[in-house]
Amino acid sequence: MERRPLAGQESTQRRPVERVGELALLARIRARVTAAGSSPSVRLGIGDDCALVSVKPGEEVAVTTDFSIAGRHFEIAWHPPEAIGQRVLARGLSDLAAMGARPLAAFLSLGLPKELAGSSKPRSAKSPAGTSWIDRFYDGLLALAAEFHTPLAGGDLAESPIAAADIVLLGAVPAGKALLRSGARPGDAIYVTGSLGGAAAGLEILRELARVRKGSRAGGANTRGNMKETLYRHLYPQPRVKQGLWLAKRGFAAAAIDLSDGLSTDLAHLCDESGVAAEVDGGALPVTAGATLEQAIHGGEDYELLFTARPNTHLPRKIAGVAVTRIGQVVKRSAKQPIVTLITAEGRQALEAQGWEHFA
Amino acid sequence: MERRPLAGQESTQRRPVERVGELALLARIRARVTAAGSSPSVRLGIGDDCALVSVKPGEEVAVTTDFSIAGRHFEIAWHPPEAIGQRVLARGLSDLAAMGARPLAAFLSLGLPKELAGSSKPRSAKSPAGTSWIDRFYDGLLALAAEFHTPLAGGDLAESPIAAADIVLLGAVPAGKALLRSGARPGDAIYVTGSLGGAAAGLEILRELARVRKGSRAGGANTRGNMKETLYRHLYPQPRVKQGLWLAKRGFAAAAIDLSDGLSTDLAHLCDESGVAAEVDGGALPVTAGATLEQAIHGGEDYELLFTARPNTHLPRKIAGVAVTRIGQVVKRSAKQPIVTLITAEGRQALEAQGWEHFA
After folding, report:
1. Residue B127: how many CB atoms within 10 A of its CB?
2. Of B19, B44, B161, the CB nearest to A359
3. What is the pLDDT of residues B39-64, one digit of tens each?
4. Is the dihedral of CA B32, B34, B40, B45 positive or negative?
């Protein structure tokens, strides 16, 4: 992976930024996307009233939209612009991963204050992109898009008092083969990919770095070792697209969801849609090094996959290079029992959904 | 069409509004959408990581996103919430119309301040919707969605310091049959559907009404006759979906775009994509009663279709009940001539694009 900036390690040099209109911005984005090459699934990209996307016979189109708003989902003062761009796209790709869908195209509606939309001079004669906030935002988004062969096929640009980005992802999945939240049955085993809690731990470090910078305290946070890893987990999440495709292709997963709001919240969603309950073995949870059990259970934005499989399914230890861990089982739903029960050495306890809820 | 509120005619009675969380809001929207009935093109709607949409063999998927932001595209203080809902969806449907695409599904990412997301009591035991701002916004959006058989299949909800709505539309069009901006050739005749300038004239009335209310001046604006019509054109635009489908099916249009930014701007876009220039006959423009020629030329948001046809194409006077008017012709592009020339009794003049441009 390309070396990307960590928070607090950005250059403090400011280059002169000039303001440009929407049409010039659009032309620059279009030039960057065109330079990235064509895609067989996008017959017509940026520049018309709609983009045209094609699917293969027998495929359905999976569609997801995710809204990221400054002050809610990211902080202009905390997050490097590249990280915001990557995080915005990762949210959408992760939803495709949870359906077992192959990415077809991304669309971005972006609202920005004037000062973030300003352009700077191109880096070189060959590159249409400069080094202003919006250029660096697209750097992050387009780098992840390239990694997952997901062309940016359209969107909208608008001036806005706050930064707001709505990402739309289209994916393709053979009809009837999509991984749904509603497929879990009592007796299924529950699995997660990768490890949990890293993004929440990274967010804590980011908050601490912001406090340190604000208070002008000497030194600054230690971002070595595990802390650096968790910070990366937060800033540059990796959606599990390959793992979702692998599961859907083989029909190994009975139900799936991505962990965007946190295990306690997302597992409850899966149980609600399937009409079941779940027991989680606290000791089995793959906690990211540097994160706490609490962060692994309630922290969001890990973008791992949570899925269930019938008891007789034999899963490998790794799927497409990422570890898979059995963390519990699906049980019958009953009024007497919580939707999700956490089992630890201290006994059984109800696991209340503690993920983020807007307007709450 | 259902009777909908005009600005300044809303009830001033305020019912108690209670705050609800995102999940309760989502459940209510899902109940409303479910009550509207199922669609053959949406195999899976709200409630999973993605929606699943299917197209017929040989069809391509047309995709458009349009971002509407409070203070830029609408004003909470001026626009009835139903009108904001209808306008948000009309923008997206109009883009499908301009491609000649059949609407498949809509997705809405909505960011709202807490006070607009509050719920009120349901109107009746049968209806899950109340009379709060967000309920009335969805009233407008879902009414237009029903009119155009466009199910709301997903989206996102987030708390936001300002109201912002990103609408995503998916449509289907037989492969190779979409109406593109790039198909115009010198010699083509240029047509518009309906009439122009009404939405801009209506916006002027709305501004005047707002000034009157703000200044507490007696009386208020006259909204009878033409003025009422233009106000409706602004508040409750009707996308030309049927007309676009009619043109695409018969292969009558060589190039098309919808008039969202205004004739002077959108015709220039079409010319740019086709590598041509255009001459507009000012005397031929179908100006909406109550609007000025200036508003017909530069005013946006009429959501009529602008299209070109080869000179030997014989078009009827009306398409699906809406008048079609020849307004000019496509000519060769040359450095000596403006991209769009307006021809009036006073002679020829360059028509500069004067539509809205963000960040300008």
Report:
1. 12
2. B19
3. 899 999 999 999 999 999 999 999 99
4. positive
Prediction ipTM score: 0.91
Q: State residue A128's pLDDT score.
A: 61
Mutation target for B interface from A22, A23, A61, A180: give the one with most B CBs within 10 A. A61
CA distance A329 to chain B (A): 21
Is the CB of B55 less than 8 angstroms away from the CB of A61? yes
**C-alpha span between A358 and A360 (Å, rounded):** 5
Distance from CA of A10 to the nearest CA of B (A): 26
Q: What is the pLDDT of residues B230-269, one digit of tens each?
A: 999 999 999 999 999 999 999 999 999 999 999 999 999 9
Residue A188's SS3 state is coil
Give pLDDT tens digits for B132-173.
999 999 999 999 999 999 999 999 999 999 999 999 999 999
pLDDT at A11: 44
pLDDT in the model for residue B257: 98
3-state secondary structure of A292: coil
Q: How far is residue B146's CA from residue B357's CA, in Å, rounded to a whole number?
A: 32
Identify all chain B residues contacting A21, using CB atoms and an 8 Å cutoff: 357-360
Q: CA–CA separation, B30 vs B46, rounded Å?
A: 6
Residues of chain A with pLDDT below 70 are 1-5, 7-20, 120-129, 216-225
User: Cα-flanking dihedrals φ and ψ of residue B253, to 5°?
Assistant: -100, 135
Spell out the domains of chain B, with CATH numbers in brackets.
Answer: 22-174 (3.30.1330.10), 181-350 (3.90.650.10)
Model pLDDT, residue B15: 44
The C-alpha atoms of residue B304 and residue B286 are separated, in whole angstroms, by 11
Let me know: does A357 contact B23? Beta carbons within 8 Å.
yes
Answer whether B95 touches A (CB < 8 Å). Answer: yes
Give contacts of A164 with chain B, Cβ < 8 Å: 69, 111, 160, 164
Minimal Cα–Cα distance from A348 to chain B, Å? Answer: 27
By residue count, chain B amounts to: 360
**pLDDT given at position A127:** 62
Q: Find where tokens 């809509």 sit.
A: B106
Whether the Cβ atoms of residue B170 and residue A171 lie closer than 8 Å to each other: no
CB < 8 Å to B67, chain A: 109-111, 156-158, 166
Collect all residues of chain B within an 8 Å Cβ-Cβ radius of residue A256.
49
The model's pTM is 0.92
Among the listed residues B203, B194, B178, B158, the one whose alpha carbon sits nearest the alpha carbon of residue B64: B178
The amino acid at A60: E
- AA identity, residue B6: L
* Res. B126 pLDDT band, cuts 50 70 90: low
Residue of B nearest to A25 (CA): B359
Alpha helices in chain B (DSSP H): 22-35, 81-99, 114-117, 133-147, 198-215, 225-235, 241-250, 263-274, 293-298
Please report the DSSP string for A216-266 in residue order: T-SS-----HHHHHHHHHHHS----HHHHHHHHHHT--SEEEE-SS-HHHH
